[in-house]
Task: inverse folding
C-alpha cells in the first residue's frame, strides 16, 4: 500500500515573534498507486509538502500520514528523487543503484537480480560500469530514478526531477516515466513547474496558491485521459495537440497566472 494523507497540515517557519506561514490547511489524499502532480508559484510550499512526506521535516499543525501512520522519519518505503541527481561520483552506475539495497541488508544475489532488472528497464545496462561523469544529464537522471525504483518503494517523491534537463531529453524522460509507471505502478507525488508535464503524467493535478500555500484547485486529469483516449497516442506531442489536453493546460496556466499576479500586486 501507499496512501498519503495530509490532514489539515500547516507549516510555520521562523521565530515565534516573526512567523512565516509556508503551508496552511492542506487537505489532500493521494490514493494507492495514484500519480499526483503539484504545481504552484515559486515559494508556495511544494518542496515543503514533499519533505513532510519524506520525513525530512514535520508539520507545525495537523498531520501527514502514510497508510494511516504519522510519518516520524525517512524510510525506504518512501523514495525521493530531486532535481539535482546527487549520484555518488566515485561509484559506478551499478554501485549507485545498489547502495540503497545494501543499506537495507538485501542479500547479494537478490541485489544483483533487482539491479540488473532495473538497469534493463531504464535502458542503462550498457552503462552499468560507467561513472556518473561519463554520462549525459538525462542518463544521470535515469540512474537517479532507477536508484529510487529499485528499492521497490510504496511511495515515490519527485521534486522537479526533470528540471535540469534540456527540452528533448525531458520529453524522452517523461515518456519513459509514463512507461515505467504503467508497468510498475507506484504512488507518486510529483512536483513540477512545467504545466504540460503535470498534465501528461498525472492522474490529478493539484494547483497551489501563493504563500501561505493552500490548495487552490484539484483537477482530475485521469477521467479526461480515459474518456478522450489519450493513451492511443504514442508520442507526447500528439497527446499535447489534443483539444482536451490544451483545454486543461490553458486552465492551469490561467490559474497560475492569477496567483502570480496576485502575489506581485
Ligand atoms: N527551513 C526553512 N526555514 C525557513 N523558511 C523556509 C524553510 N524551508 C522553506 N522555507 C520557506 O517556505 C516557503 C516555501 O518553500 P518551498 O521550498 O516549499 O517552496 P516551493 O514551492 O518548493 O518553491 P520553488 O518552486 O521555488 O521550488 C518559501 O518562502 C521558503 O523560503
Ligand atoms: Mg521547490
Result:
Amino acid at each position: 500500500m501507499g496512501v498519503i494523507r495530509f490532514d489539515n497540515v500547516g507549516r510555520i517557519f521562523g521565530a515565534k515573534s516573526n512567523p512565516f506561514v509556508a503551508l496552511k490547511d492542506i487537505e489532500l489524499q493521494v490514493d494507492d498507486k495514484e500519480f499526483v502532480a503539484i504545481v504552484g508559484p515559486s515559494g508556495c510550499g511544494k518542496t515543503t509538502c514533499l519533505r513532510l512526506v519524506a520525513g525530512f521535516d514535520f508539520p507545525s499543525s495537523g498531520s501527514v500520514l502514510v497508510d494511516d501512520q504519522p510519518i516520524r522519519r525517512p524510510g525506504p518505503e518512501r523514495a525521493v528523487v530531486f532535481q539535482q541527481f546527487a549520484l555518488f561520483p566515485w561509484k559506478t552506475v551499478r554501485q549507485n543503484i545498489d547502495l540503497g539495497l545494501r543499506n537495507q541488508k538485501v542479500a547479494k544475489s537478490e541485489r544483483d537480480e533487482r539491479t540488473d532488472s532495473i538497469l534493463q528497464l531504464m535502458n542503462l545496462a550498457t552503462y552499468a560500469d560507467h561513472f556518473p561523469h561519463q554520462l549525459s544529464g538525462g542518463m544521470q537522471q535515469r540512474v537517479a530514478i532507477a536508484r529510487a525504483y529499485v528499492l521497490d518503494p510504496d511511495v515515490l517523491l519527485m521534486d522537479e526531477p526533470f528540471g535540469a534537463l534540456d527540452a528533448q531529453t525531458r520529453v524522452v524522460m517523461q515518456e519513459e516515466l509514463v512507461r515505467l509507471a504503467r508497468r510498475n505502478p507506484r504512488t507518486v507525488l510529483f512536483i513540477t513547474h512545467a504545466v504540460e508535464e503535470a498534465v501528461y503524467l498525472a492522474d490529478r493535478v493539484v494547483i497551489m496558491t501563493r504563500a501561505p500555500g493552500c490548495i487552490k484547485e484539484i483537477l482530475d486529469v485521469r477521467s479526461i485521459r480515459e474518456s478522450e483516449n489519450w493513451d492511443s497516442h504514442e508520442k507526447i506531442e500528439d497527446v499535447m495537440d489534443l483539444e482536451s489536453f490544451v483545454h486543461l493546460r490553458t486552465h492551469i496556466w490561467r490559474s497560475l497566472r492569477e496567483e502570480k499576479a496576485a502575489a506581485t500586486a
Remarks:
- Strands lie at 4-13, 20-30, 35-39, 61-66, 69-70, 78-81, 155-159, 187-191, 204-208, 215-220.
- The radius of gyration is 19 Å.
- Residues 204 and 220 are 5 Å apart (CA to CA).
- The first strand starts at residue 4 and ends at 13.
